[in-house]
Amino acid sequence: MVGKPIFPMAYKIKPNQVRKIYYLGFPSSWKEELIKLTKANNPKFKIEYGLPTHALQKLVDSWMEGIVSMSPLKEYSNDSHWLASTIPFDGKRINILLEIIRVWIAATYISAYKANPFVIFMAKDLCSEMKADEFYPLCSEKDVLLSMADGQVSDEAYQAIPLVVVNRLVGQDIEICGNQIHLSYAAKNELVSSIITEPKFGHKYSFVFRFSVQTTPPEREALLLCDISMRRWIYGRKNKTKSPFLKSAIIGHIRVSDDKICQIPIQYNYETKSLDWKSQDRECYNLYGYKSLPAVDNLWDIVECGDNRYMLPYTNGMEGFIKSAIGTGVPVKDKAEAYEKIFELLGDIVDKPSVPNRISTRQKLSYYKSPNHYETREDFRKWVVSCTETNKILFELYGVLNNPSHQSLLTAISNKIMCDFGEENSNSCLSVDIVQKEIGDIANPVNKYDKIQRCDELKEELGETEDVIACICIIPGADADEYKDDKDPKLIIRNAFARSGRIVQFVVASAEDDSLNHQKIEHAVYDLYRQLGITTLMNTEQLKSYKLKDVTCVGMHVCTQIHSIRQKARFLPIYVSHDLSTGRTRVQCAAFEENNISYRKACLEMAKLFWNENFEQLCVNASFSPAKQKLIEMKNHFDYDSQGAVLLVHSDGNTRPLWGGISDKSISGYIVTNDYMPDQIDAGSNKASYPISLSGTGVRVFRVRNNAEVPDYYTSQREDENYSSASGIFKYGKVFWAISQKPNDPKYNRSLKESRFDYPFIDYAEKDMIEIYPLQLQIEDDPSVWTKYITDLCSLSIQYNQSTTLPLPLHLAAALEEYLLEI
Predict the structure, then answer these.
(1) pLDDT of residue 1
(2) What does the alpha-carbon distance between residue 574 and residue 602 come to, in Å, rounded to a whole number?
(3) 817 in helix, strand or coil?
């Protein structure tokens, strides 16, 4: 396995590509009326933020092909290029667009809940006054250079190139492992293959292809990413006499031609008190004169009869539906062949990127992965004391005590904990007690409208404590009959326990065999240890000479769309710091009552946020230039001669609005004396920059990405036509891509050998690839060595035998979100 290459599922965009882009302006008279309408609808509306056109953009993207961009409509904005497209705006498209705008106005101002009668009158009047011919003088076009010789692309290219690619591939047939599939347009930048039906049970699936243009720092070299996934289709209902309950919307796929699929959500309609097609999308669908949609109550019968014109995606755990026999994941073999076939069809647009260079790394990290690996159980107790900052832990185990199944699980959980900590004696540094408690009505189902009251009642029943108490509750599975109709109480239980001072984990009662129960119990217990703040200890001898031993590792994570009992906040930054030598984890969050607390206390604080009357303002204050504040603090605390600190930031669409300086665009503008050592970096937000110099300090900054902005990959084919397994660190340009060792799990091994066509029922998996970019290093730092240190942090979470996708501080920070309550 050592030395095996990887190949990114991405294409380099050929230079000097020119495409005609068509523009449509927005009529100024319409904008003036919309501003008046919005102000009448919401007196607090601030026009500097622009009209609320996000929903309009979603409708236009969904129902008009070739849309490159839609610009915001503000009071003084230049709207001459409001809408950009790769397809001309002829009369038919303009008429469709006008009707979509009317659908949006109706949904926003006319049929909205408790709509103002005067606003309704104004909106209807505007809809009647708008005419398509007002668009015609606002049409324009120009030739746009999408790709440059240096590998960069224009702003239009990020949307235009995927549209060009999808348009090229629509209607094409490609062959994967001897099987031909047909590609149909399904959504913006998305293709769905023809349905593949396995012959044994008649269950169905399709391959899904998504394309996006992403860049790599610091030069902003553009890559066209090709993401291949699988979509399983619903086979039928368990009970064919009634409609199933949906916890969330199902995206109905309607095939309207050989080469096109429309997508419309199916969701609960509170007016008709039944499942229905989402009204705005249904109206847009009808604009095209397609065959009328069937009533949703009849749709289930149509799907069960095998009519492939209507397809409903299946996901694991869906209530009321027959479980799909199709496995999950796309094997490497299928991905590799599909990538090559697509390249053959796009050869005049793209090239293959260079093969990433493998980075040779030092010795393998050695650590005590489980309590069994410590020399003595007392050594494990000492480590737990160091991690948790306590010398006494009480484990409360809740279940139905007179239920044999529950009692068996409770005994097994108790034995696992006792085995981990060993026998206690008078010299033990940590006191561990275990008690079993009757669960009573704690796990009873809870109606949606009773959840807040039930949460308060449960907190009072438990009683508040200052002691360190960790709990496990045995509950029915989420698909149990009593938990249907959104009555699962886990979120309520977790919040109530946390507000009483307890952390909690769940074990689902089921009739599984002993081996599965053993795995389930071990995972639950180790996850509870994680909530206590226990991490993995590195091998003592290796730790002595380990560079990161005395370096403070900090992870910056941003929670988004957080709810309280009456308010909602957009962002909440959290910092999690970890000390490898002591195992101590501390959490900082400006919205907490205390700002520098243990990981266990941070779990409790997260639960309290829902009930804070000043929640929204707390989050606003915490989100004000958080990177600036943290970097100033670190710069003042860690000079060049200190052991130093590493700041890890998870870069995605949630973090960049608060720290604009980590975007590829910002990084490309930094003045760099030596690689990874800019003179200054921008620690401000998107709205206010704040240049700061970290050169000559003890601070290092790494940007980590693991989302759709990072390419997937496949490996090399062996002589026996199976594919190789690859792991390690790979360098592409100036960025590093890291893949952890695959676990000894059949689904990872099968992925290298089999095709979904030949073995449709089994699961396939491949380790995720993360991107690591050293945004700030110091003199004499070796970028490859420091990147290896960062990947080592993926191995130190106690709850998983295999590596986590994110380094430990970021993994722990993201896991805190489980204590946020949303009702």
Answers:
(1) 41
(2) 10
(3) helix
